[in-house]
Amino acid sequence: MPIAALSAATRDDPLAHITAPPPDETDQQRQARLIAEAEAKRISDAIDEEIQQQERLAKKGQVVKILLLGQSESGKSTTLKNFQLMHSPKAFRAERASWRAVIQLNIVRSIRIILEALAEHQAQQNAPRPGTAQGPSSPASDIKLTPDHLKLKMRLAPLLQVEEALIKKLSPAGSGEVEATQLAQAPTSSGPIGRYKDKELAVNSSFAWKGVFNRLMNSTRDSFDSEVIDWDNPEDPGRVIDACSEDMIKLWSDPTIKRLLTAMSIRLEDMGGFFLDSIERVASPRYVPTDDDILRARLKTLGVTEYRFNIKEEQRLGLGSITREWRIFDVGGQRSLRCKRIIQKQDGAAWAPFFDDVNAILFLAAISAFDQALAEDPGVNRLEDSVLLWKSICSNPLLSQTNIVLFLNKIDILKAKLDSGVRFADHIVSYGNRPNDVESTSHYLRRKFAQIHKEHSSAGRSFYCHFTTVTDPKSTQHILVDLQDTVVRKNLAQSHLVG
Ligand SMILES: Nc1nc2c(ncn2[C@@H]2O[C@H](COP(=O)(O)OP(=O)(O)OP(=O)(O)O)[C@@H](O)[C@H]2O)c(=O)[nH]1
Ligand SMILES: [Mg+2]
């Protein structure tokens, strides 16, 4: 056909030229051609739909859902940070500006606890009340504060105003996402263990607090962006913290104050967000948090947060390389929150869409907390509460098919506590006169948790348990790789893909 015979549009499209119907096509031929084309389209659409369906199914099989459970401060969010550090280190590091503010808040909280202890001691010295924790015969009663201590206390007072500024910074106006009020509450009279624990900054699930530093969060750069922190801003809380750093060091290293804190059973170094041993570095004007600092920072979770990672499995299980999406749900462990949630789950209500097809539960128990009370209920021993929670998870019929991996966490604090002379058997009477060392106590607890698992799990559920210090990224990441393997293997076995 001469080019001149084609329409302008067809001339521009060489394919149209090839597929165009013959110019001398009869009505019959045209009819047959249209039927053939319709049939070809039907087959092509069916193939497309089949491919899409396969993709959907494949995707479904490749999503792994993990639920982090355990009481408040057991280390759930810290475990999640380890996942982030492993699988999206850039995003993890891009949040450093936000964590800097949290760490500053953690420091102020530690100082506040000391200043409140000094005030309490001072009040007791001026007007001793018999029968209280600091009555005349208490271990603290012979500790005398000097005028220098009181001057130090006054010089550190501006730090308390910094607290307010930091909370404001971390709670964007009108977001409704952050419940920061708990930090400024008056101390309760629940004794040394529960006294200070309820004063914490807590964030809601959507992490709007990090939005303040959004530019940095979205950055793909691995370096710290000096645009995000206005180092020269006179309002930057870091300035007051820097100005107070020498006095903070003096306060924390003072032997009388150390003795007073011990006498009042306040072990700041065991609490989350403890940075007083690194004040010089952390309070320095251009401080940028390290990975370890972020893992040690404390920010309480409210609600549920979902994180997604793509995890590539290299040649494991002989199936070649495959990328799976992992969804990890971090649940606030404070008692009121978790009870409500679990009840809701048992009712099959609000949480069902999240958790019905969870592949594994990662349960954390802070076994160093054997001598501590719950912040939310000072009459309850933390370890006992953790064991009861473990029992309720193992025996929950809705979770009977879900694999559970147990992390007996905070081994480092357990060791430090026992080494400092705290006796395990004084709090866990059933321990009897076994050795007061980390090896014996941790294995004793492992057996307890295993026994409950055996008695309350459905038949055939395996017991997976690790001793962990999740603030140590190196050892934790080994364990998480192991966990990934276990979960994937179990998942495949349940889908009858492997034996
Ligand atoms: N030394 C030490 N500190 C730990 C360990 N695990 C967690 N922490 C610290 O304990 C604090 C509490 O940990 P989180 O991960 O916030 O606890 P959580 O279970 O998420 O607590 P909620 O959000 O209240 O449910 C943080 O400051 C952590 O850095 C550990 O193994 N050793
Ligand atoms: Mg948390």
TrEMBL record:
GO terms for molecular function: G protein-coupled receptor binding; G-protein beta/gamma-subunit complex binding; GTP binding; GTPase activity; metal ion binding. This is G-alpha-domain-containing protein. It comes from the Eukaryota. PROSITE patterns: G_ALPHA. One of its GO terms (cellular component) is cytoplasm. The lineage of its organism: Eukaryota, Fungi, Dikarya, Basidiomycota, Agaricomycotina. InterPro entries: Gprotein_alpha_su, GproteinA_insert, P-loop_NTPase. GTP binds at residues 295-301, 330-334, 409-412. CDD domains: G-alpha. Pfam families: G-alpha (PF00503). The keyword Chaperone does not apply. Mg(2+) binds at T301. The keyword Transferase does not apply. Keywords: GTP-binding, Magnesium, Metal-binding, Nucleotide-binding, Transducer. Residues 1-28, 124-144 are annotated as: Disordered. It comes from Cristinia sonorae. GO terms for biological process: adenylate cyclase-modulating G protein-coupled receptor signaling pathway.
